[in-house]
Amino acid sequence: AEARRRVWVSQPLFDDIVARLDAHFDVIRTAAVTRHSPQAIAAALARADGALVTLNDAIGAAEVAGAPRLRAIANVGVGYDNIDLAAMTRAGILVSNTPDVLTETTADFGFALMLAAARRIGEAERWLRAGHWRQWSFDTLLGGDVHGATLGILGMGRIGQAVARRAAGFRMRVLYHNRRRLADAVERDCRAEYVGFDDLLARSDHLILVLPYSPQARHLVDAAALAKMKPGATLTNIARGGLVDEDALADALAAGRLAAAALDVFEGEPAVNPRLLALPNLVLTPHIASASRATRRAMVALAVDNLLAALGYGPDAGKPPTPLNPEALAVG
Ligand code: 8YV
């Protein structure tokens, strides 16, 4: 009998969902959450026909050079800066991600972080738990308002638009900047106004980053950009840590140029810049914006659907639902 094809699963995900792969493949599971070395990734891919991976797994030309059978990589996550897409296309490997299913959950969290930063929720809880609340006073922990303020959205894709729709309920004025301007109908639906990058910085009371990471976008929000922001503004990042120069942000927060910030993502995560940890006016969370139970399950389910379809199974055989490089199917 012909040997069964193999799929590598780089992290423990949801067992009951991953089990759908067992009907068609020998599934090579990873027992514990692991930051695989490049060599370990290459070794796992060398024997695989498909792979289910996460943002922990950096995959470029070197990792697939010795993987002649590999045809599909399903990334569990909408951001795919961990994968060199051009190299995968050249190698005839179809890459997919998990858009849409995490949009609303991630927008909820972005809004929560912005509220927490503006209204000093994390700081207030730490203060209370530390026993400082001896007497109620009128001027304890005064924050900035969110309702009626101007929200700036940098990156106006699916998640940015979902953030904009939430802002309408807070009667915010919404400005956005994006590589491309949205169609008029979408702009109207989001009640959002397109502005240049510098205008966005200068006019936003609360700025939120929701754009994909690329090497060209590294430190897009650097000291110069922070200096253009409105005094007393807040910055929230639910995209990728590398978009922000963290030392420059620490300077701006320490100097009181920005009132507060909220970060779900970090340049060297899971390590966090010690200067950030020392600042009170900063909300820090461990990359959990998409982490509701239902959404994380939906992400894994969509990744499994993509893998099955890319490798020729199921109702969508040959037509994965959310491919990033469909042209890869034509290669090799
Ligand atoms: C994921 C994310 O948890 O989707 C993304 O881009 O950053 C998160 O939703 C992460 O990518 C898991 O791989």
What can you see in these coordinates?
Helices cover 33% and strands 15% of the residues. The chain has 332 residues and is an alpha/beta fold. The protein has helices spanning 15-18, 38-46, 61-64, 85-90, 103-118, 121-129, 158-169, 184-190, 197-203, 223-228, 246-254, 274-277, 293-310, and strands at 5-9, 25-28, 50-53, 72-75, 94-96, 150-154, 173-177, 192-194, 206-209, 233-237, 258-263, 282-284. The chain is elongated and about 75 Å long. The protein folds into 2 domains: 5-99 and 293-330, Rossmann fold (3-Layer(aba) Sandwich); 103-284, 3-Layer(aba) Sandwich (Rossmann fold), CATH 3.40.50.720. Strand 1, helix 1 and strand 2 form a beta-alpha-beta unit. The mean pLDDT is 97. The protein contains 13 helices and 12 strands. The protein has a 7-stranded parallel beta sheet, with helices on both faces. The structure holds 2-keto-D-gluconic acid.
Summarize the structure.
The protein is an alpha/beta fold. It has 13 helices and twelve strands. Helix 5 crosses helix 7.
Rg calc? 22 Å
CATH homologous superfamily placement of the largest domain: NAD(P)-binding Rossmann-like Domain
Task: Assign the structural class, choosing from mainly alpha, mainly beta, alpha/beta, alpha+beta, or little secondary structure.
Answer: alpha/beta
Unique ligands: 2-keto-D-gluconic acid
Q: Name the average pLDDT.
A: 97
Number of domain units: 2
Query: What is the element string, with H for helices and E for strands?
Result: EHEHEHEHEHHEHEHEHEHEHEHEH
Largest sheet data: 7 strands, parallel
Gross geometry: elongated
